[in-house]
Structure of Sphingomyelin phosphodiesterase:
Amino acid sequence: MGAKLFGFVLFCLCVSASTSNTIEDGFQLTTRALTEYLNTGVRPGYFSYALSQCPLPNILSGHTDVKAAIGDSQVCYLCSQIVDLFILKRRLGMTDVEMAKEASDICITLKIENERVCDGIINANLGIFMYIIDNNADLKNTSVCGLILTNYNCDSGNAYEWTVEVPSGKTVDKVKANGTNTFNILHISDIHYDPLYTPGKSSQCGEPLCCQDDQPDGTDDSNTCGYWSDYSDADTPFHTMQEALRESGTHEFDYVYYTGDFVSHRVWSTSVENNRDIIAVTDQFKAYYNVPVYPVLGNHEPHPLNVWSSDGVDDATLSTQWVFDLVAEQWGEWLTEDAKKTLLKGGYYTVSPRKGFRIVALNSNVCYTVNWWLVNDSEDPHDQLAWLAEVLLDAEKNSESVHLLMHIPTGSSECLSSWSREFRKILRRFSNTITGHFSGHTHRDLLWVYYDDDEQAVGVSWNGASVTPFSNSNPSYKLYQIDGETFDVLDFEEWTFNLTLANLNPTRDVDWYKLYSFKEAYGVGSMEPSEVDKLLTRMAEDHSLIQKYYNYKFRNSDVAVKNGCNTSCQKSLLCDMVTTVHGDTEKCEELKKLYDESTK
């Protein structure tokens, strides 16, 4: 959502050639209209006509139809034009109020969102944009376009090229897990608690989040928000959150991993005060779990969402230090004083809950390509990756096994490529020290396999799915079985309930059930990276396995099962599982080739 609205002027790409001789003609007409409007402050007579030719595809998602119709270079060109114009306007004295009005008018005219959503998002982010322009005299359009339009391969020059020093040496020899002494870890993620969720409201509201108390009522069963939540763009009411915590708490486990996102998707009306109150639902963990909880921050925790201020930002109204201060207090009983120090520095920490075992909780939100502060300073924000390398080196020396926790996983264009690349370098170096890797953010049941330079599988990242159904998913949590000596993941179970059935009988107890065990469902001998790599090969050749993966991705939700997963969808799933740095498609191409050969 943040990318969509920050790119309000980038959506104006005319992909329909029906009223122009060529797509290029329509593109130039739209560009000319916007340029004239932004330069003169007066809309030219053909302005509305020009914009009417634009069906407003989601440019920033890299939709393949858009890429095929327009091409990367033209998207990047328009971006550079618009960014340069706004920088120039600011340099010539355009005020914050004038800038907000320009942005909001365009957002509303183009029907990107309605007036209150446009105004809310723009006003929340405006101060950051103005700070970046005002404090970067040499700011270039490539720094902006190369970040937010990663999918279009816009040239960013050297703006985001940096490296982290990784300790020399090779990873330690792997100790094989025997599974005779085990314990469990509960993994819960992405609650997105919504205090304004109201059953009976419309689930087709036309805003980024539905089922709100200030939105219209539903008109029939097909568009009315249910008691427990909804498959549409809806989040988690308080009673559903409590139900998930209560049910998950009935299992036996020694620790809880929470991989981020407490705050709802009502992104147009967040505030520091409201986000503070929602993050404080951490207290619910203390009520339902009598074991240590190790949380990480999600991209929705700050206000505005997605942004994590650079070190040295001296404007208290823009700094996100308040988030670190809050969680250091909220999570304090589970952390050491040393852990609190790094949590206060950059939202990351490490603890050792038992001998030979270490947990490292990262703030991977800083790599998010809609974290505007990356334009200001992208190089290893808060020195986190350098710190990670040192922590893992110490763990290696002390014969500790490490579990990594993070919110945003690497691999997609959502995570800055340089951050993903440097993280992968560290993971490769310490692949046998890292015995577990867990993430959130996607709201889907997913996994990623990391490979070394020789294409040997060296790590697996397990995604925690989500409590929120946003969107098209059933709520869920995972229970991992861990080897008590090596701390390897031995298996996991995912638990869920069917949202449709629960909403049909809101007065009855929710019928939670075990969706699957990974080892049983996929017939793997272990959860080792090499075994999961072999599974991916089998998925490419036996498409019933990748179809099963798709169904589990959404926890067998009625909507997802009905929608199905065609050939293109299945190939995309395969590629996603082996892409841990955006643009590195070698393994993806291998699996697609296997997939195609299996259909001959």
User: Anything to note?
Assistant: The two ends are 41 Å apart (CA to CA). The longest strand covers residues 476-483.
